[in-house]
Amino acid sequence: MPFDVSRRRLQALVPSLAGRRIVVAGDYVLDRFVYGHPKRISREAPVLILRFRGEERLPGGAGNTAANVRALGGIPLPVGVAGGDEDGRALRESLAARGIATDGLLEAPGYRTPTKTRILAGAPHSIKQQIVRYDVEDALPAGDGLASALAVSLRAAASGAEGAVLSDYGYGAISPSSVAGLREALPRGARISVDSRHRLPEFSGVDAATPNEEELEECTGRPLDESDEALSEAASALRARMRCPSLLVTRGSRGMALFSDSADAQPALIPVHGGDQVADVTGAGDTVLATFALALAADATPLEAALLANFAGSVVVMKMGTAVVTPAELSAAVEADRTLLS
C-alpha cells in the first residue's frame, strides 16, 4: 500500500536540498580500495596472488557523509580530526577535490588517520569481490587541548548552519557531550541527526538517529528476530531513553522503519526500493544519514525524509565501493517507483 506522500512532493524536495549548510562532525576516515586480478596460488602459502591494477582513496566515515551531502548539492561543514600522515593528506585532498572545505579538520600530531583498506579481486571485466580488509586505527591524543579546539570548531561551523550530523565511529572526534554545545550554537529550528556505532543511547536530546537493526539490538539488549513487534518495542525504548523525536532504522533487504512523533502511532515500514540484489553496501548508512538530514533541513517531514533516504540508499548500494548519489539519480529513483508513493 503506497504512503500518503505524492511523487510530485518528493520530486520538488530533491532540488531544494541544494545549498543547505550541514555541519558534519565526527570521525573522518580514509577508505582505500586496492584492485587486482587473480594470478595464481602462491607457493609460499595457500593464498591467492593478485596482479595489482590500481587503487582508489575516498572519504569514509563522516567523510563519506560529507561527500554525500555535497553530491546532493548541499554544503557540508566538516568538523573532525585527521593526522599529518600520508593518509590524512589523501583524505583532505579527496574532500577538497569534491569542493568540500577542510579547514574544520584539525591536525593532531602523531595521530594516524583511521584508514580502512579493502583488497578486491576479479577478472578484468567482472565485478570485483572484496577478499580481505585491514584497518589502521589510532586513539586521539589524550588531553583537553584537542577537545577544546574541536568544540570551538564545532560552534564556529554551527553558526548559520541549517542542520547538523554527528557521525560517531568510535575514534573519539565526537562525543555525546557535544550535543549541548552544538544545540546552543545552531540557529533555532535546525535539527541534529546522529549515527553512532556503539554508544547511540548516550546521544540524548538529538532530533533524529539512524541505527541499523544490529545497532538497535546492541542499544536495547533485545533480540529482534525479524519481528515487527520486537522492532517496535526496541525502537520505543531507545527513543524514550534518547528523548529522540525520530528514529529511522535501516533493515537491509527489508528496507527501513520510521518511528516518529509526527507520524501515526504505528511505525512506517518502508520496503526497499527496487530489487534486493545489491552490488556493495559499503557506506550506504552514510548516504542514508546525509539524505535524511538534508531533507529535514529542507523542511521535509520525517516520513518524506525517510522515503528520500530509502531511494538514495537503493541507488548507492548498486555502486561499487564508497559511493554517493546525485540529485539526478535520486530524482530518477523517485520517478521510477510504482509501489511506495501515492
Defining key terms:
globular, 13 strands, 9-stranded mixed β-sheet, alpha/beta, single chain, UDP-N-acetylmuramoyl-L-alanine:D-glutamate ligase, 342 residues
Concise structural overview:
With 342 residues, this protein is an alpha/beta fold. Helix content is 34%, strand content 25%. The protein starts with 6 loop residues before the first helix and ends in a 6-residue tail after the last helix.
CATH homologous superfamily descriptor: Ribokinase
Mean of residue pLDDT? 92
Oligomer designation: single chain
| Weakly predicted, low-confidence segments | none
Q: What would CATH call the architecture? A: 3-Layer(aba) Sandwich
- Distance separating the two termini: 9 Å
What would your notes on this structure say?
It is a single chain. With about 350 residues, this protein is α/β, with parallel strands linked by helices. Helix content is about 35%, strand content about 25%. The chain has a single domain (about 5-335), classed as Ribokinase (UDP-N-acetylmuramoyl-L-alanine:D-glutamate ligase, 3-Layer(aba) Sandwich), CATH 3.40.1190.20. The chain has helices at about 5-15, 60-70, 85-95, 145-160, 180-185, 215-220, 230-240, 285-295, 300-315, 325-335, and strands at about 20-25, 30-40, 50-60, 75-80, 105, 115-120, 130-135, 165-170, 190-195, 210, 245-250, 255-260, 270. Strands 5-4-1-8-9-10-11-12-13 form a 9-stranded mixed beta sheet, sandwiched between helices. It has a 4-stranded mixed beta sheet with strand order 3-2-6-7. A hairpin with a 7-residue loop joins β12 (about 255-260) and β13 (about 270). The protein is globular and about 60 Å long. The model has no long low-confidence stretch (mean pLDDT about 90).
